[in-house]
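User: Fold this; tokens only.

Assistant: Input:
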Amino acid sequence: MVEIRSRFPVRPHDSYGTKVAGRLVLPFDARQKSRQLAKLDTGEEVALVLPRGTVLRGGDFVVTSDSRVVEVVASPEPLLHVVCASPEALARAAYHLGNRHVPVQVGEGWIRLAKDHVLEVMLQGLGATVSPVEAPFEPEAGAYGAHHRHDNESGHGGRIHEFDASGALAKPT
């Protein structure tokens, strides 16, 4: 069985002679799992054996053990689409979701989260308008990034430290 062990380092482009050999269409929960069996859109079964903590995003490219490039596609899934009457009300809704460690996708004037009846009722109680939608889910990675590491591993801290006080990308030291 073909394995997928790493991301393709750059976006494939015809001028590089790289052709996309297939698509790996997965919902967000599956794109968070570094070890699993999956099927390409061609029907071929592949084994994902990615570094622990890897989260695949729609638009990523991965490389197979036989050197083929595969595009990752975020499949549509049942979500809640949340809008509010004011930016303050939307921030309040986001605060309550964050306090519960709920993964959210943030857009201009809206938040999306995985369908959950209890959270839907809570958001409606906060005055939000909540609508069911079927769409790809790409939640925020979080200020500290999606990579899980242990204290005894090398590497730097979270992504939050890559920015200066104004929010601009900090210059390397």
